[in-house]
Amino acid sequence: MSRILKKIAGKTIEQWQKDLPLLKTMMDGKPVFWCNPQYQADSTKDTAYEIFREDVADADARLKRFAPYIAQVYPETRAAQGIIESPLQKIPNMQRHLSKAAGIPLPGGLWAKCDNLLAISGSIKARGGIYEVLKTAETMAMNQGLLKLEDDYTCLDSDDFKQFFSQYAIAVGSTGNLGLSIGIMGAQMGFKVYVHMSADAALWKKQRLKACGVEVIEYESDYSSAVAAGRRQAQADPKMHFVDDENSKDLLLGYAVAAQRLKKQLAFQGVCVDKDHPLFVYLPCGVGGGPGGITLGLKLIFGDCVHCFFAEPTQSPCMLLGLMTGLHDKISVRDIGLSNCTDADGLAVGRPSGFVGKTLGPVISGSYTVADAALYQLLQAMADRESIFLEPSAAAGLAGPTSLLRNAEDASDPVRHGLTSRGENATHLVWATGGGMVPESVMQGYYRHSC
Fold first, then answer.
1. Torsions phi, psi of 346, nearest 5?
2. 206-256 pLDDT, tens per residue?
3. What are the CA-CA distances from residue 343 to residues 78, 90, 172, 227, 374 (Å)?
4. Which of 131, 143, 301, 327 has minimal CB crowding within 10 Å?
5. Are 418 and 100 in contact (CB under 8 A)?
6. Whole-prediction pTM value?
7. What phi, psi does 34 have (nearest 5°)?
């Protein structure tokens, strides 16, 4: 257990607990559910978000330019013509299980967005992480006059371009999956890649990166220390690009592109999203970039017809803590005595992204926490009932629908009122963020852990 600070932002813990009664439960390491009182209807109509709309369209166009190159270097993407996308799958067996386990009805439809099956790196980070590498490469090549927008980007898969990119380096701090996506894509293009990995990163992820020729720098401390070390390394080298998981707009935009594709998938499946058919999305959250980007994209498309909830471990609820207190990255879970120790390695983050919290706070509907033991139970149930195999962090979204329903009594809250009044028409979407690259032996260990 970490030491509890006597004062945080000038207030004692007792004062914080009086102002925020949920804080005491969080400090006890118990699961909580929080609806965001700062949620603002119609907020995406603001000018700032309209600028984001243009940026997301630009990111989508860039990924399409790179699609021929992706298809050429990664044969598994050829069927999708180089577009890295995951399936949308209805999970009725899991819906019945969750309802029975919680002892409450779960009306509407339950779906999984299977980013655990994303090509190349097997997690949601194949969106933002790979996108930032591609944009970095494109910018460098264009600045040197080596590439034009109208070119066939398969030219990037050449010795000349790999030699050019080998003059540059990319660094990133990661708990695991972001490092995988950056390392795999960066090394493929020819960059020197340095991945600073925190103590909680899984061994197999480090081994996979080393096999790609990536230099993995390991730390006994947590995620924030790894990120800080990567940032210092890049600041000392003018030819090194630092992928800043805490503050990167490019990462955010790479994730946000998923929303337009999801809209098409929902329509293809006959799923309507409007004010009478609300969409509730449950997103596992570490530092906040992945769920933040997905939330941004979804809100730009569906507005107040979609509600996004962030899912975090009980010992690492950094985004919830930052949003609830309004302190964002100025507070850590360790400040309130939590350990930041969790088997959900991708979510083992003690301090949230201030960029995400401050930028997207008004459009995040809420957050909830899940104990590690529950993550393993959900992981096993998903494997048994839907043959979908997830890593522990990716199972966090599955706790969302029943957590929301248990806390849906407050009819004055617009989010919960929408659920209670139109629950039969609701669609619940669990974002399955990773697991596709997990070695079989490791996955079996995850599965047995819940037995």
1. -70, -15
2. 999 999 999 999 988 878 888 888 999 999 999 999 999 999 999 999 999
3. 34, 27, 21, 19, 11
4. 143
5. no
6. 0.95
7. -135, 125
